[in-house]
């Protein structure tokens, strides 16, 4: 985990220095920094990254547009830093390809905690795949989820899936036909003790439906159980 390559993107040097200082104290060694979207994109192209902390407001672009460009190169986990808390801004962040967000002002320890939770979950997921010889491939009549290959195949064609969305989909596959609450999903897939926002799970569920459902507006696989949560089902042929 401590060998992970982390990119911090913010035009405020004080924030970069504060987060970097805490990360160094926590043992992180490979810390990359950028103050503009251009610098950040150059690092993304040149370096295999494990986590990105991305400010929404940058001098040469905004974080949402930059996130879309980053997604052309990597599915790395992206956490937005934002002073905006309206539903529109949150949804815009997720729709642009982000995985999580923290609002300013923030405690850098919260950033580190979220970073550790994600990296630990990714490490555990790799270990479980290496140890498992069964149920690594989840086959549905319309799509297939291959954990080991990290692939979603829909009607015979591979479909691009952001890492956090894929982890959520895998969790649903491992708990087929079980009703899972938003709180349970947030704790198990994001690894946090408390749910920051209902929109986080809701938007990621929608992103799954956009990929696996013949009609995302009328889902037949990933269903909403009103008042309880969601469940993934296998349709009978």
Q: Main traits of this protein?
A:
alpha/beta; globular; 11 strands
For the record, give the distance between the C-alpha atoms at the N and C termini, rounded to a whole number. Answer: 43 Å
What would the average pLDDT be, to the nearest integer?
A: 87
The outline comes out as: globular
Poorly predicted spans:
129-134
Widest beta sheet: strand line-up: 2-1-3-4-5
Helical residue percent band: 40-55%
Q: Using DSSP, what is the number of strands? A: 11
| Rg result | 18 Å
Structural class: alpha/beta
Q: What report would you give on this structure?
A:
31% of the residues are buried. The chain has eight helices and eleven strands. With 237 residues, it is α/β, with parallel strands linked by helices. Residues 129-134 have low confidence and may be disordered. The longest helix has 24 residues, at 108-131. Helix 6 packs across helix 8 (198-212). Strands 2-1-3-4-5 form a five-stranded parallel beta sheet, with helices on both faces. Strands 6-7-8-9 form a four-stranded antiparallel beta sheet, with helices on one face. The protein has helices at 13-25, 37-46, 63-70, 87-95, 108-131, 163-174, 182-190, 198-212; strands at 5-9, 30-34, 51-55, 77-82, 100-103, 137-139, 143-146, 151-154, 157-159, 222-225, 229-232. The chain is globular and about 55 Å long.
């Amino acid at each position: 985990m401590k060998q992970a390559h982390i990119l911090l993107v913010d035009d405020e040097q004080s924030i970069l220095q504060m987060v970097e200082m805490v990360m160094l104290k926590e043992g992180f060694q490979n810390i990359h920094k950028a103050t503009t979207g251009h610098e950040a994109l150059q690092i993304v192209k040149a370096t295999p990254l494990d986590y990105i902390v991305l400010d929404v407001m940058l001098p040469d672009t905004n974080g949402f547009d930059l996130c879309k460009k980053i997604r052309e190169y990597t599915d790395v986990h992206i956490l937005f830093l934002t002073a905006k808390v309206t539903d529109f801004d949150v949804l815009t962040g997720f729709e642009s390809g982000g995985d999580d967000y923290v609002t300013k002002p923030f405690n850098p320890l919260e950033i580190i905690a979220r970073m550790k939770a994600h990296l630990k979950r990714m490490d555990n997921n790799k270990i479980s795949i290496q140890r498992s010889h069964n149920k690594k491939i989840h086959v549905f009549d319309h799509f297939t989820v291959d954990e080991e290959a990290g692939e979603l195949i829909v009607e015979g064609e591979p479909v691009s899936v952001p890492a956090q969305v894929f982890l959520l989909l895998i969790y649903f596959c491992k708990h087929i036909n079980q009703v899972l609450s938003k709180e349970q999903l947030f704790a198990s897939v994001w690894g946090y003790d408390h749910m920051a926002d209902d929109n986080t799970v809701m938007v990621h569920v929608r992103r799954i439906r956009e990929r696996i459902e013949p009609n995302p507006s009328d889902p037949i696989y990933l269903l909403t159980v009103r008042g309880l949560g969601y469940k993934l089902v296998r349709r009978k042929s």
